[in-house]
Please model this.
Amino acid sequence: MTAIAISGVRRRFGAVEAVAGVSLDIADGEFFTLLGPSGCGKTTLLRMVAGFCELDAGAIHFGARRIDSLPPHKRNTGMVFQNYAIFPNLRVAGNVAYGLKARGVSRAKIAARVERALSLVHLDGYGERWPHQLSGGQLQRVAIARALVIEPEVLLLDEPLSNLDAKLRVEMRGEIRELQRKLGITALYVTHDQEEALAISDRIAVMRAGRLEQVGAPAETYRRPATPFVAEFMGTTNLLSGRVVGAAEGWLRVAVGAAEFRLAAAGAAEGESLAFSLRPEWLRPLAPGADPPPGWARLEGRLETVEFLGALTRLQMRLDAGTALRLAALELPEGWGEANARVAVAYDPARITAFRGERAG
Ligand SMILES: Nc1ncnc2c1ncn2[C@@H]1O[C@H](COP(=O)(O)OP(=O)(O)OP(=O)(O)O)[C@@H](O)[C@H]1O
Ligand SMILES: [Mg+2]
Model:
């Protein structure tokens, strides 16, 4: 039962500022995810919490206790590494028991706790197996059991699913989340996979070049990205730039080339340039002759590509004014099958997120 407070934490490697001043409060029992592209400092920050990397500046507290100068084994964290780090020369039980032996727990207690940890990850009866006799998913479970067996206050996971195939990844992320809920343990999870982050987290911190771009609940980071970088990193979007040319029906009118969009941008003045994000699934394909829903805006153009993906169809259209737009739809109205067809789409201006003082890509 532990809240984590990270305050003003920095770490530099030579010329690289791996973590460039990060402050974060993670609640007791929260499942918190660090998300960002390769090299943005996720592992470095996680290793500082675990005690495998020193801080240049700042402090880390678990509850009221300052822990950033304690050695790793005094911090009471369990860590799952990206590459499992399973010892090949120890049986499964020996691997799981490792942290308990290091802490001087008695033999009799070790056996019972190892059994319980294996049971938690659905590996009952696997204690006598050798690592090479296990699948990738089973090895990952051993790594999780080894982290949990010491009954840590905080569970740290660094891309724990990246070596697994897509289907197993989805299954295992559900298991990790279920286990974390059941134990009520605070979890700090690292991934560069935005879908995984959305699916598993209470809150997400999107990182870029050693800094936090946005911290928020999954739906918030997806629907209301704080920056163009977050808008593009959290899935697919249409990131456009334009100029405010006036107002109509409570919305700003924004010219993008010769096309016009409607949106809200608090405080933006006529003549101002801004960028904005409109998700592909927020553009609704209209049947020929159909009107947009009340209050929505309408755009016309030609269909360029249609990609049927099973549950979803991804499309690209080119507005008459020349701008390309990406669309995603569960179902398509008639006339939307062929490339080059004339089409119209509608969107709710309230869905658009504007970024004042920014330009797209
Ligand atoms: N021990 C080290 N020595 C020198 N540079 C390092 C060291 N560890 C990390 N870095 C650098 O710090 C930056 C952040 O690295 P880090 O491993 O934290 O990124 P990451 O977000 O975990 O990336 P990935 O998604 O690829 O794992 C990178 O530029 C990396 O090269
Ligand atoms: Mg990493």
Observations:
- DSSP finds eight helices and 20 strands in the chain.
- The domain at 4-225 is CATH 3.40.50.300 (Rossmann fold).
- The chain has a mean pLDDT of 94.
